[in-house]
Amino acid sequence: MAAPSFLLLFPLGLLSAVRSASLMDPGSMTSSDPSVQAPHLTGCKSREQETFRCWWSPGSFQNLTEPGALQIQYWKKNDLTKEWKECPDYSSSVKNECFFNKNNTVIWIKYCVRLHSESQNKTYDTLCFELQDIVHPDPPVALNWTLLNISRSGLNYDIMASWEPPPSADVSVGWLTLVYEVQYRRRNSSHWKVLEHEFGTQQSIYGLQTGEAYEVRVHCAMRAFNHFGEFSDVIFVHVPEIPNKESTFPVTLVLIFGAVGVAILLMLIIFSQQQRLMVILLPPVPAPKIKGIDPALLKNGKLDELNFILSGAGMGALHSYPPDLYQDVPWVEFIELDADEPEPGEKDNQSSDSQRLLGHNNHHTNHGCFHGLSIPDDDSGRASSYDPELPDQETLMLMAALLSCQPNKVEPCLGNCSHSSTPSLDVLEVPCPGLQAPDLPPEGGERHLVQTQLGGPQSWVNMDFYAQVSDVTPTGGVVLSPGQQVGAPENTPTTKKDKKGKMEGGEEESEEEEERRTNKLKFQLLVVAPEAGGYTTESSGRQMSTPDPSSPGEVYHTFPPPSAESKPHQEAYLPATTLLGDYQSPYILPDSPPAQFLPPVSDYTVVQDVDFQHSLLLNPPSPQRSPTCSPQPPSKPLPVMPIGYLTPDLLGNLSP
Amino acid sequence: LTRSVVWAVLLWPCLVSLGVPLECKDEQGSIILCASISKEKLLDRVIQHAELIYRVSEESCTLFEEMFVPFPMRSQRNQAGYTCATKAFPIPGSKSEIQQISDKWLLHSVLILVQSWIEPLVYLQTTLDRYDDAPDTLLKKTKWVSEKLLSLEQGVVVLIRKMLDDDMLTTSYYEQGVAPYALQPEVLESVLRDYTLLSCFKKDAHKMETFLKLLKCRQTDKYSCFLH
């Protein structure tokens, strides 16, 4: 009998076995001789808490093997008498078993059973228990399983195992409350996987593999006493492999390869078109610039050249203005409009048509303009708004960023900012990033770049940015001069001077203009034709008035006479810059322009045409112009477009 | 006071307008505050409590046994084992007898059992605290059981009131409680005493659960409960 060794092997941790209400033979511990076993009780068990049985073993004693030699006696705690009673029923079918039926069983009351030999009057073994502690329920019945689901890959599946409580256990009444434990294993495995205790009558098993055979069994115990009964019959679970899982595998492979291929293709495209993609995705931030003006100039502080260009000396640079920006309104009409609304603040400057042009910007839609960008515009009299739709403030900001080379001075209104008519424009105190000119020309030079008028009536855009038409040659050429007096050796027509003076006379900047004039302000209007890198062919502007060709390092825009010069000659010194491009490479013109540069004249000029090389023509051959070669006297409004100005519609007829 | 009155006045229409019996979601201890809970629900909750108490008591007993009880004295198979204190009234043990017990008697028995264990459990807690290496879980469990026992008592009182329409005083049965748990005189060690206490409590918890379940069976299906 293994009971002695069973008890001897009890470690402290095997409490469940210790607590086993089967009460496996306590009495055998006394035997010292394993070969000789005394009679002992092997255990008492109850199946349903209503009856119980006890078994004993006679041991190896020879004289007790006959039946009847040993008796089982018991007594209950609540017995009135303290007598041991005989086993009520020795079961006939099983040897050495005593059966206590329901009439004799009570729960919650201690029983004591002893193995007694009457003949010897000796008790070999005693066992005390309470009925509820020795319940080992019958196995559950009707164990079955249903398939819950199969994984996508078809490799795993889940099942739900269900059963019913043993019929002997009176669960419905609540006499027994059972807890179940399900175990399963693979067919050929020897280790059972134990699932958690389940109080219901079903349990789900997850993660079974298809194609494998499993065995499932369940047993139950009375709750809180944890003496599990016998196991139920084993059921077999088997789900065959699903064949179509094979077919899904290549599909996934194809998908994976396809995705990889597409990714590789995308990478190739990206790498091959990297430049373009970079441009598309990360458009280059436009550097602060004025169209027609090299941003490098702005940065390097070459204010003289800048002023020169912007003043209109380099008129040809601005012909790249897209034609569509031009309204169909003729320039003349614009001028007329300007004349109709004289600025309140400018009393002195009414005479100056350029003044008017410059100052009447607020009445027109083209509010945004670049100072000095003598882009042919319908209101080209105003200093060149390259973007008519640009709002004032934006222009202000833009111009401020571009042109303000002084930290404090910001060009608030570079475009059509009427000095007097736009009082609302605020001068933007924007530092000039990158435009700081460390080597600014003397103070006057600073000024002439852009005039900053704090508050109040905005100073007119610094005339310096415009190539002011100082004179018109008989041939139709326009003599341009920068904004301020550069001290050109040639005489500036007094009218021009006066005009110029009048243009700015009314404003506070008259003194500034003086200063400017004294400076060598040279705008550099860079017009570089992208195709040819040619030069502006300003036919009419040939007779440009460059303030100081001898200024070192200055870049000025000369307008070669329309007829006299040939293209190559023009190209010699006239760089043409398209204004359309984002980048305008500066084109320094080291050579001096033709000697016919005139003293500073009008502050601006108007591009009248764009030639095939996208050069601005300041004096187109169109007869539309009024024959008057000289600009109107400042006092008079310009009813017609003077020679040297480009109407927008003319731009469409680019004449090479 | 006026504020509470105002609140009551304000909230009362809400309760009435709902037209749904107020569900008492709290523990049984707060059932009294609930306006209405059905008998079945209350019985279910009481049974839940009893089941939980039974389970926890069994776990506590096991824990205590593992930690402190020497091996030979375990699992109550010692003939000279403990004897739980007898109650003031006998509780039938056989199934047939129990099934014949009336509802009233069942409920009252449960109540008596619950009330008789309130004090001993408190006493047990204090003794367990004196143990040097009592595991925290054991202390928590016993503490939990004491609390739940009180809730169970309240629930059973309400249940009695509802099912039996018997309004009775809950304190009348406290006299039967045994404050110092009487044990066999030969058991002197405190360990064994406590072990006995836990075991007896486990048994009584089982009794409570069984009675309540039997009661529930009768509520749902009177006939099948007597078939066996």
What is the fold's blueprint, element by element?
The complex is a heterodimer of chains A (656) and B (228).
Chain A: H1 3-8, H2 15-18, E1 40-46, E2 52-57, E3 70-76, E4 85-86, E5 97-100, E6 110-117, E7 122-130, E8 141-150, E9 156-164, E10 178-186, E11 193-194, E12 202-209, E13 213-222, E14 235-238, H3 244-272, H4 274-281, H5 295-300, H6 303-313, H7 331-340, H8 353-359, H9 392-403, H10 443-449, E15 468-472, E16 478-481, H11 494-505, H12 510-518, E17 527-528, H13 567-573, E18 576-577, E19 609-610, E20 616-617, H14 648-652
Parallel strand pairs in A: 17-18
Antiparallel strand pairs in A: 1-2, 2-5, 3-4, 3-6, 6-7, 8-9, 9-12, 10-11, 10-13, 13-14, 15-16, 19-20
Chain B: H1 2-18, H2 39-68, H3 95-100, H4 103-129, H5 136-164, H6 190-220
Q: How is this structure best described in words?
A:
Chain A has 656 residues and is α+β, with helices and mostly antiparallel strands. In chain A, helix 10 packs across helix 12 and helix 11 crosses helix 12. Chain A is rod-shaped. Chain B is 61% helix and 0% strand. Chain B is globular, with a radius of gyration of 20 Å. The longest helix of chain B is centred in the C-terminal third of the chain and has 31 residues. Chain B has six helices and no strands. At the A-B interface, strand 7 of A face helix 2, helix 3 and helix 6 of B. Chain A: This is Growth hormone receptor a.
End-to-end distance of chain A: 124 Å
Distance between the termini of chain B: 57 Å
The gross shape of chain B turns out to be globular
Query: Which segments of chain A are poorly predicted (pLDDT under 50) over 5 or more consecutive residues?
Result: 6-31, 319-323, 336-350, 360-391, 405-463, 484-514, 520-597, 620-639
Largest sheet composition of chain A: 4 strands, antiparallel
Query: What percent of the residues of chain B sit in helical stretches (DSSP H or I)?
Result: 55-70%
